[in-house]
Each structure stands twice: as C-alpha cells, then as structure tokens.
Amino acid sequence: MTGSAPSTVALVQNPALGALLLWRFGKSYQEERIAEAAQLHSFFVILPLLYHAPTLELIRSTLLGSGLSQLAKKLGEERELLISIQTRALKMRELTLASIGTGISSGMLHLTYETARLRSNDVKPPKEPERLRHHISGADKLGRWFGRLSPDQASSLLWVEY
Prior knowledge:
single chain, 162 residues, 6% strand
C-alpha cells in the first residue's frame, strides 16, 4: 500500500477520540445535573476547546470549583482566544458530527431526537492513554462547568452562538 502516513493532527483529531471526549463531557454534565442529558448543540464547542493547545492549557490551569466564568475570564485576557472559539467550532463541525456518530454507533452516546439531547451511556470505555489525560480531564471539567449553567449562560460566556 502506498501513501503518506497520517498527519499528527489526523492522529489526534479523529472521531474515535472525539467520541471518547464527548462521552466524558456528557458523563460529567449528567453527574452535575443529576442524570439530565446535555443539549446536542453544547457538544459542538467541546472539541474546539480541547483540541486547541492554548485553550486546553487554560482549562488545565483552572480549578474545577472556579467554573466556566473563570475560564472565560482567562480566555478574555487574550481576547483572540475567546473570539476564535466560534470560528473553530464552525471549522470542526464535521469532526464533531463524525465523533457523535462514532459515539452513537459504539453505544457510548444516545441521541433523543425529540428533545435534541445527547446522553452519555453507562459504558466502560477503553483505558485512556496517559498522553490524553489532559484532554480527558478537560472534558470532565467542561461537563461539570456546563452542567452548572444554562445553555444560554455557557454560550454567552464563551461568545458562541448555537
């Protein structure tokens, strides 16, 4: 077989990893909201936040108890980081959709079409590689932070429109 090896970006930004991160986000959201599933549109912000190294670093450095408002404050200190979330979310729509599809087909996620809510099922995903622990921890924090706010509050803090 001839062809070039996949790029580093393609190795990290793939639907299987995306499904795992979205599942972790949803699981944490449901733990925060006592089993209420997150609205589908909330998931379209998660990968753009986690796959952007400077933003991931700010998520890592923000304490769980500080919440999404503290992350937004940090992002706002470098205004371009906050403004660019919307653009990245639009650019990553296809990856997010593919990740949701992978999550649904693997049984990790379930979409309720009538309510447009995406539930993280009770499954045991494969052991996470050590190199991805910051991404998974970030997904966990984001799920908890989003779960503490209304969808409108979260989108307002992050300057995104769904």
